[in-house]
Amino acid sequence: MLAKIILDPNFRGVITAQQVNELAAAIPTSVDDLLLLLVPFAQCYAIPPVSDYPVGAIAQGQTGAAYFGANMEYQGTALSFTVHGEQSATTNAWLNGEQGLTSIAISAAPCGYCRQFLYEITTAATLEVLLVGQPPEQLTDLIPQAFGPGDLGVTAALMSPANNGLRLDPPPTDPVVQAALAAANASYAPYSKGYAGVAISTASGATYTGRYAENAAFNPSMSPLESALTMWSLGGNTNDAITKAVLVEAPSPADQADVTAEVLSTVSNAQLQVYKAIPPA
């Protein structure tokens, strides 16, 4: 059954809640152990040309569905642009409509960067971290004396539903620009207000979107292009060349244009199209 799910040409790194429960019953095993069994499959999506160290992660959303994630490095640019496996799995869940995570299974103990990233999400206080051969641990036990949204007066959190009210004038008719604008309106940037979204289209005609995910500690923030590239990699065919890339962002001190163009150049010859959105009055 598992092979049928993950080898399906339409598989995009998501196992539904019903499939999770059916797989756990068929093995049989607990859901936590099933998530750990899935981690090596998530590692297959890793793209680590610099470290040669693949990391896989499986995040379980509040709906019960499981979301694959893996690390992605961009050869020829700064290592600070690396997407960590935990970021990838969280983004996959978020862009598929989840509003929180119950647990995350990882191929290695989460680094401090990832603990900080995960501490930003809506369910950080109850999130379980799963590692092979170890009992489940609470994220809050892995990041004592944590600094997060509450310390900066932010009551919302990453994965909260959002509509940032951005618009373009004139309204776009290009579906890729429309997708980037929708991603920007669902993005999370409570500190800079630099709401931003990216949409990329490929030679096959597929479109992938990504949202900016800001962090109270700033550095673990995930750019909208990194978010879109995560979804592209989970699409299962990174040979499907990116032919168009659009960034829509609100004016702010946290400008995304230059870094987005730099990272894009490591994976595609497409020229970045940048649109400055008009924030709500």
Describe the structure using short key phrases.
281 residues, alpha+beta, Cytidine Deaminase, domain 2, 2 domains, six-stranded mixed sheet, four-stranded mixed sheet, 9 helices, 10 strands, 28% helix, 17% strand, globular
What does this molecule look like?
The protein is of the alpha+beta class. It folds into two domains: 2-152, 3-Layer(aba) Sandwich (Cytidine Deaminase, domain 2), CATH 3.40.140.10; 175-276, 3-Layer(aba) Sandwich (Cytidine Deaminase, domain 2). It is built from nine helices and ten strands. The chain starts with a helix and ends in a 5-residue tail after the last strand. The model has no long low-confidence stretch (mean pLDDT 96).
- CATH class of the largest domain reads Alpha Beta
| Radius of gyration from the alpha-carbon trace, in angstroms | 18 Å
Roughly how many Å apart are the termini?
Answer: 52 Å
Largest sheet: 6 strands, mixed
Strand content is 15-25%
Counting DSSP H or I runs of 4 or more residues, the number of helices is 9
- Output the helix-strand order: HEHHEEHEHEEHHEEHEHE
Low-confidence stretches: none
Secondary structure topology:
Elements: H1 2-6, E1 14-15, H2 17-26, H3 31-43, E2 56-61, E3 66-70, H4 85-95, E4 101-106, H5 112-118, E5 128-130, E6 137-138, H6 139-142, H7 175-185, E7 196-202, E8 207-211, H8 224-234, E9 242-249, H9 257-264, E10 272-276
Parallel strand pairs: 4-5, 9-10
Antiparallel strand pairs: 1-3, 2-3, 2-4, 5-6, 7-8, 7-9
